[in-house]
Amino acid sequence: MALRRHGATGPITLIGREPLPPYERPALSKGLLLGETAFEKLLVLPETVAAEQAITLRLGTTVTAIDRAAQTVTTDAGDVLPYGTLILATGGRARALPGLAPDGRDIFAIRTAADAEGIRARMARSRSLLVIGGGWLGLELAASARKSGLDVTLVEAGPRLCGRVLPPAVSAILADLHTRRGVDLRLGDAPVALASTGTGGVTARLASGAVLAADMAVVAVGLTVEDDLARAAGLATADGILTDPAGRTEDPAIFAIGDVARTPHPALGSPTRLESWQMANLQAEAAARAILNLAVPPAETPWFWSDQYDLNLQILGLPDMAAQPIRRGSPETGRGSLLWLDPAERLCAVIALNAPRDIAMARRLIGTGLVIDRPRAADAAVPLKDAVFRAA
Ligand SMILES: Cc1cc2nc3c(=O)[nH]c(=O)nc-3n(C[C@H](O)[C@H](O)[C@H](O)COP(=O)(O)OP(=O)(O)OC[C@H]3O[C@@H](n4cnc5c(N)ncnc54)[C@H](O)[C@@H]3O)c2cc1C
Q1: What is the CATH number of the domain that holds 255?
Q2: Candidates 13, 17, 25: which one to mutate for ligand 1, based on the most atoms within 8 Å of Cβ?
Q3: CA of 177 to the centre of ligand 1 (A)
Q4: Strands 92-94 and 223-225: what pairing?
Q5: How far is the CA of 259 from the centre of ligand 1 (A)?
Q6: N or C: which end of the chain has fewer CB within 10 A?
Q7: Residue 392: pLDDT above 80?
Q8: Which of 245, 260, 291 is the last residue of a domain?
Q9: In ligand 1, which atom is closest to the CA atom of 94?
Q10: Are 197 and 212 contained in the same domain?
Q11: Is the domain of 180 the same as that of 263?
Q12: CA 81 to the chain's CA centroid
């Protein structure tokens, strides 16, 4: 769509393994499960729009090989399609735990709309849910299930929730929130066995020896990146396809964007895969512009959100887990922010809990070079935009 918006006139074909037209995933663990969002609202490229935009959809079709010399891809239907430019936006699949395979009946993964529909249907006739994984998806599932009245037990192998991306203080806020809402949190434990009982339920045996029973289970332990095609075609990969800031791989005719791309970002030391809605959209825009020889805009500050119960959590920038943030408002009680400053006392990252205005203002402050006045920034009565030192 970005290519068309920027004036591309040649033929565009979109090949997708799923039988559905392209859709947004964030609501799959939230509004869709709760019945608040209809699937049709999630479609980004419905067939009618694709036809209007002259984009050919080949759905339910998997690309099995890339021939870089011939500039063709082969599909599982045996078709060989030529390309001038190839964009790999293959994302990833739900990571499976060895020996703990989802069966789509009592044990589920969560990545696709089909997964979410299966979970929703099973939740409607379940009283209890076991969630494996205390990252964003596991927590959003737990919140959706509690809101739907299910008993929820959540098992997380690490010592705290979202341990890869959150500082300990925010992990503790989330643990407190879920415990208060009645989730039985089992941190620092992991299933060694998970199986359907065959009589409409599941049992899990944990490393600690605990045995858990529930009507259904969802395994939400992250993503396995779909970079095999690129690797088989001889492109450089390292848990993701390596690209330049515009998404170009080492082959000038091939780009990679979204969850599958490992891309340099000025806010990060080394090329990184940022699995977020924002990055998928920005990288699509950058690649479209690069393909059309238009200027690529500078990278934006990474942004991510999650909704759990009545908590809206947003992260702008990449918080330094070792540094001490400024506390603004009352993040512990679910209304306030944590602000990180760089060594020059400029704002570089924010985690906001039910404080979207702080994120909106931080967007305008980050990268401006303005120095933050710590006492004013800590005072939630002072708008964040007024918490900067003014030139005398
Ligand atoms: C349940 C859920 C909730 C989320 N919530 C949030 C949120 O609240 N905020 C946020 O910022 N992000 C969220 N995300 C992350 C966000 O959805 C992803 O970052 C985004 O989907 C990445 O888009 P993508 O196009 O790179 O990859 P994907 O969305 O994974 O799409 C890749 C597509 O390529 C297809 N494919 C793969 N290999 C092939 C092949 N060989 N041939 C043909 N097709 C292939 C796949 O089937 C898939 O349809 C969430 C993700 C999930 C799963």
Answers
A1: 3.50.50.60
A2: 25
A3: 27
A4: antiparallel
A5: 7
A6: C
A7: no
A8: 291
A9: 53
A10: yes
A11: no
A12: 31
In a domain, 297, yes or no: no
* CATH number for the domain harbouring residue 337: 3.30.390.30
| Among 292, 301, 283, CA closest to 247 | 283
Q: At which residue do the structure tokens 């694709």 appear?
A: 50
CA 378 to ligand 1 center in whole angstroms = 37
The verdict on 11 and 158 lying in the same domain is no
Q: Which protein residues touch ligand 1 with a CB less than 6 Å away? A: 15-18, 25-26, 28-29, 62-63, 89-92, 110-111, 137, 226, 229, 258-260, 275-278, 280, 304-306
Query: Would residue 35 count as lying in a domain?
Result: no
Do 279 and 320 belong together in one domain?
no
| Domain assignment of residue 317, yes or no | yes
pLDDT of residue 239: 97
Instruction: Judge whether residue 198 has pLDDT over 90.
Output: no
- Which of 86, 88, 90 for mutating ligand 1's site (highest number of atoms within 8 Å of CB)? 90
Closest approach atom of ligand 1 to CA 304: 11
Its domain, for residue 214, covers 94-223
Atom 39 of ligand 1: nearest residue by CA position = 90
Bridge partners, residue 152, by sequence: 129
CA-proximal residue: ligand 1, atom 7 (nearest) = 26
Please tell me whether residues 248 and 320 are part of one structural domain.
no
The residues pairing with 314 across neighbouring beta strands, listed in sequence order, are: 305, 352
Same domain, 87 and 98: no
User: 223, 239, 254: which is the final residue of a domain?
Assistant: 223
148-180 pLDDT, tens digit per residue, is 999 999 999 999 999 999 999 999 999 999 999
Q: Do 328 and 367 fall within a single domain?
A: yes
What would the pLDDT profile of 110-121 be if each residue is shown by its tens digit?
999 999 999 999
Query: DSSP readout, 327-370?
Result: EEEEGGGTEEEEEEE-TTSBEEEEEEES-HHHHHHHHHHTTS-P
Cα(58) to centroid(ligand 1), Å? 17
**Residue 194 β-bridge partners:** 204
Residue for token digits 């993503």?
Answer: 223
How far apart are the two ends of the chain, measured CA to CA in Å?
48
Structural domains of the chain, count: 3
Return the structure tokens found at 293.
Answer: 């020889």
